[in-house]
Amino acid sequence: MHRYPHWIVLAALALLALAALTFALAAGSVDIGFGAVVRALFSPGDDAGSAVVRDLRLPRAMAAFAVGALLALAGAMMQVLLRNPLADPYVLGLSGGAACGALTALLAGAAAMVTPAAFAGALISTFIVFGLARGQGAWAPTRLLLTGVVVAAGWGALIVLILTVAPEAQVRGMLFWLIGDLSGASRSGVPLAALVVVLVAAMSFARDATLLARGDLTAASLGVPVRGATLALHALAAFATAIAVTVAGSVGFVGLVVPHAVRLVIGNDQRWLMPAAALAGGALLTFADTVARTLVAPSQLPVGVLTALVGVPLFLWLLRRSGR
Amino acid sequence: MSAALPILACQGLALSVPGRTLCRGLAFDVHAGDCWTIVGRNGAGKTTLLQTLAGLRPAAEGTIVLAGEPIANHPPRRRAQLLGFLPQDTFDAFPATVLEIALGGRHPHISRWRPESAIDVSRARDALAAVGMDGALTRDVQTLSGGERRRVALAMLLAQDPDVLLLDEPTNHLDISHEVRSLELFANLARERGRAVVMAMHDLTLAPRYATHAVLLDGTTAEAGPASALFNVEKLSALYGQPLVAVSHARGTAFLPA
Known about the structure:
The complex is a heterodimer.
Chain A: H1 6-26, H2 34-42, H3 48-81, H4 94-107, H5 114-133, H6 141-165, H7 168-179, H8 189-203, H9 206-212, H10 216-221, H11 226-248, H12 254-266, H13 270-294, H14 303-322
Chain B: E1 8-17, E2 20-30, E3 35-40, H1 46-53, E4 61-66, E5 69-70, H2 76-82, E6 83-86, H3 98-104, H4 118-130, H5 146-160, E7 164-168, H6 176-193, E8 196-200, H7 207-210, E9 213-217, E10 222-226, H8 227-230, H9 233-240, E11 244-249, E12 252-257
Parallel strand pairs in B: 3-8, 3-9, 6-7, 7-8
Antiparallel strand pairs in B: 1-2, 1-4, 4-5, 9-10, 11-12
């Protein structure tokens, strides 16, 4: 298996992330040159360009980066926990719970409650799935996966119900939320802080996670505290996903495609895969969000449409390529 | 040897799986240098016994003592330094190089935030050389054959280098030459390096050659003792419900279907 050294891949991804952030700050309806962007960041003046970069584009770009990184990290963890390279952060129904919470708040006309309702919905869904899937004190991947898929189907039905009874005027906002949209992300502090916490905590279980991918028995015989590590990784993945979904709605494919693609390049050693997936996921969503808000400017596309449009062919290509 | 404390001991051990008790009152002591072989028909409880001895599942009754302490009292990492377990099957759901997998065996010897040292890497390479997989260090495990994957799993355990090695059908998928080489390797670890080996086996032509002791499981009762007292035509024929004949040769006795 030919691979580039781990640190070279990581450095390349860091450069890619930097490029995506720069693009996000420079591109938009107000054209701002690279030099002006650097000046706005490091010696801001009172001009309109500085204000646009610092107050509008920077928070949104950072939020996009954090959400993408959180989703990719959560996807990497779910794939290991479910021993399934096709698992994604939403596979256990968490995004459905969040969507039901958010849509209910929108339906009730309580715009301020959308964020807390989405977060509560995500947590409720997580507790339902883990409560129901618990058999003999352990969570078997197959049982968890089946429970999650069925609970997600239940949320799906509720979402359609809400969309059906909602007044026409609200449906558009609801659809944007469902497919994932960052236009409302004006603050990046919470997702960035969550990203740092989740990444550091997940990295402390990285070697355990690599061994868990080889089966509970192998991991346990090598001294991995299987129950504790599994529970911690599930909790981290659920928390990361809940934060991401709360900020941006259910942006699809980042959590599925990014860890899978990164694994093909860097292998399944979680000590490298986790930070690499975070960088790649952050870069991808930052880039996609910038395109989403500039492609048909002045109107904006929901970023989830773009990640899906890019993600579907990319994923199919990777799958075909790895099958050879 | 019998004066020394056993490295692994069980007393009054009962094994059960849902709906069935597999044995009761099983007691035996494993000392450094021993090579124990567990035999019995499919479903008689060989895997259950090994996993219980490894501390990976609770015993229905009885105690298991590892290095002088009840096995559950050892922290997981410490237990893994003392005792290693080779499962009957291993998973390769994700790509990984042969060297990465062997390095996984060093896990209990490396603290949480440390990377593998040069010593860990050389231990992993030696382990792969011992099973003849050192020519494939960068191969993806998912491209290997079943027998080659088995040898990589064996190398992972060798790199772990525990005092007690519990092996669940270690020679699964191996061709006859690698079967003999692996069994020689484990017998040598016991004889010359003072390790203790306990393995479940189906091959009655090779098992008697290496076993110093045996456990016979028939699904309801268990018998443990020196191999010389248990490996004979009467006992094994009754155990398997299959008439056997003993064939003596220069390296010992082999049991064949009559």
